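Extended Data, panel c. Modelled sequence:
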Amino acid sequence: MAANFKKLPEVAYFWTNVSRVFLFWAAFILSRPLGATVGDLLDKPVSHGGLALSRPIASAVIAVFIIACLVVLPQRAGRHPGRSEITP
């Protein structure tokens, strides 16, 4: 089942117009240690310090968190420190 979730960003890349930045972070975070650690916390039994959510619900919680961060913390273009604001 977990192997199927790893294919979602790849499928979305080729078949949708979803932001490439979002797809990168979704693939990276959900498949790397941070995602694994948070996923373990969410789906471990309460007796072992977790929240006892099912894996699909835990994945949905993580996905909602990522989307909320993208909405609340938008990326903005910055100025290059060595460049003046007036263009010749």
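The CA atoms of residues 30 and 51 lie 18 Å apart. This feature is highlighted in the accompanying rendering.
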